[in-house]
Amino acid sequence: HTLTFEPQILCLNDLILDVIDEFTALAEAADLSLVDQIQVNRPLKVLADEDQLYRLLSNLVVNAIRYTPA
Questions:
Q1: pLDDT digit string (tens) for 18-66?
Q2: Cβ contacts of 28 within 8 Å, gap of 6 or more
Q3: Residue 19's CB: how many other CB atoms inside 10 A?
Q4: How many alpha carbons fall within 13 Å on the CB side of residue 43?
Q5: Phi and psi (nearest 5°) for 22?
Q6: How far apart are CA 47 and CA 62, in angstroms?
Q7: Checking CA distances to 42, which of 12, 13, 16, 56 falls within 20 to 30 Å?
Q8: d(CA 41, CA 45)
Q9: How far apart, in whole angstroms, are the C-alpha atoms of residue 53 and residue 60?
């Protein structure tokens, strides 16, 4: 399986907020909460593959939820 890399300019703030939205219910089920500290007036732009970066952030959040005590 070959991964393709399709870089584009992304707003990391938006991507992080999307990940938080997706995993808030999972965190709450584990008696945790996801909190962002994003400065909405300072968008952080990155050149990255959106799908791969989303997958990476999702894995980090899921692992944090799984291994963090309530």
A1: 999 999 999 999 999 999 998 878 999 999 999 999 999 999 999 999 9
A2: none
A3: 22
A4: 7
A5: -65, -35
A6: 24
A7: 56
A8: 12
A9: 11
